[in-house]
Please model this.
Amino acid sequence: MIYLLCLILFCVGLYCIITKRNLIKIIIGIGIVEYAINLFFILIAYRIRGRAPILAQDQVIENMVDPLPQAIVLTAIVIGLAVTALLVAIAIRIYEKYGTFDIEKIKRLKG
Model:
């Protein structure tokens, strides 16, 4: 059930990317897609009554949580922040040059 909610969040972000004409709304859609993918990775690693992967000598943990997806998501968050900052900087430069965030108007302009 929770995977379905993650898919719905992904579809909302994809809808924003595909149908919106405003650059800021497209950037927000990309952020929503990134969050949905990160949530999916965390959900894959989740275990009911899971324990942290910290072992002592002569200790066996049966239901251990996998730390690798957590590390991947942490890296993806940092990369996503950098990509979002770059997209916002590009959108600001486009607005300074053309005076609009509308993609259709930007396509018609020359220069």
Remarks:
- Residues 34 and 80 are 7 Å apart (CA to CA).
- Helices lie at 2-19, 23-45, 68-98, 103-108.
- The chain is about 70% helix and 0% strand.
